[in-house]
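Handoff note, outgoing to incoming analyst
You'll be picking up this chain. Sequence as last confirmed:
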Amino acid sequence: MTQKIMFQFPGQGSQAVGMGGSLAEAFPVARAAFEEVNDALGEDLFRLMQDGPEDDLRLTRNAQPALFAASMAALAVLKEKTGKDLSAMASFVAGHSLGEYSALAAAGTLAIGDAARLLRLRGDSMQDAVPAGEGAMAAILGTEEAVIDEITAEASAGGVIQLANDNAPGQIVVSGAAAAVDLAIEAAKARGIRRAIKLPVSAPFHCDMMQPAADAMAAALADADMKNSAVPVFCNVAAAPESNADALRANLVTQVTGRVRWRETLLAAQAAGVTAFVEIGTGKVLSGLVKRTLEDVAIANLDGADDLDSVLAHL
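Most recent structure output, in case you need it:
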């Protein structure tokens, strides 16, 4: 491997009706990956991915395993077309929030079926952790972490509020009690920040209100069969590479209430010598974050069959 490549796996919000369809149509190995997830869940998730309705696909319990399945299908195609395993294609892997499960399955830490079942539990437990309407998230764009810290300190009069996602320079998401998030939006606008937008999510992810979900995942992950990873995984909560199964397991639990340190992850990957980032799965959200964060790196994404040649050119 002449260059260092990081495979990155998308998170919630990238889902779309029709996701993975062109890969499944063109490659039996992709279809087999979708069927493996269907079997693990005991339902036809792939049909929902293809036919919708979109509102059902967007539900956390469906979106999380669906995005995982699409990433596993795309990875299976890459392995077949190159004749290489992951460690011969990528030096590191990382995934945004639920995408960390995709990264771990790609790196051989979790079996596909186990990861799919864990993500269904994760989606259900995150949804159930906070009654509908009591939590919220908002994107605050065009400012830096120090200003966000001021805003959240001010907004904490309304309840729990935390920096949830540090996605890219000028793209930060806060999460917490609905009243606190409303106050944060007001505080941002009072500081002249024009883009402070409540997100269409069903729960306040990556904040302390998710502790019941973290407890549920801790219990499930304690029993999960996890192996050391074939390549280092940049974990969301550490923004640093990790290969040890026990550390990876602990990071998955912390991640439920902890910050997604994506901007720092990209900077750390570049510092570790990564010169190309390949997004594996639905959409181009993570590719966009790389563009906002780093210069002089190559970017590719494998969403559908039409993307294959451009990705293979990087490998």
